[in-house]
Design goal:
With 157 residues, the chain is mainly alpha-helical. The protein is built from six helices and no strands.
């Protein structure tokens, strides 16, 4: 029963999004793919920056670091902790250990985790609270209003 309700809720929201026009759905897919690529390249550029400032050599390519992160993100869904905390860091540390010095890797992974996890939570919270305060936002009322105005049952207007 709960699963059925979730599917119905998903259907309603997809209908609302699709009703606004297919270009929004296409844009959403494009942005999701772009975000995934940019998100996975952050560690590489952090390591390049650390290597150039410290004079150390980075023996890992962009493709190698990207591939390792893709593998770890597939495994991260099975780690029973929020954000796969600890598992991602340990996996990156052990998989890149031969290609990057330990000191550079430790700093790089710490900066990467702060930028890709903790900073997003902090900025998201600030933005959410700011929007809520500016608009006197009420999630429950907006949710009900969206479902009433955009639901398939009210499509006869």
């Amino acid at each position: 029963e709960i699963l059925r309700e979730k599917f119905e809720e998903f259907h309603k929201y997809m209908y609302i999004l699709w009703r606004k026009g297919p270009q929004f759905m296409i844009l959403d897919v494009f942005l999701a793919i772009s975000f995934s690529f940019v998100f996975k390249f952050i560690l590489y550029f952090i390591l390049v920056g650390i290597a150039s400032s410290s004079g150390e050599v980075l023996n890992a390519s962009l493709i190698e670091i990207w591939g390792i992160q893709e593998l770890l993100y597939l495994v991260a869904y099975y780690v029973p902790s929020p954000g796969a905390s600890g598992a991602m860091e340990a996996g990156l540390f052990f998989m890149l250990d031969g290609s990057v010095s330990e000191s550079m890797l430790g700093v790089g992974i710490a900066v990467w985790r702060i930028l890709t996890y903790h900073l997003i939570i902090v900025v998201g919270t600030i933005v959410f609270l700011g929007i809520k305060k500016l608009r006197n936002y009420s999630y429950e009322e907006t949710n009900k209003q969206d479902l009433q105005n955009g639901s398939p049952e009210n499509n006869n207007q």
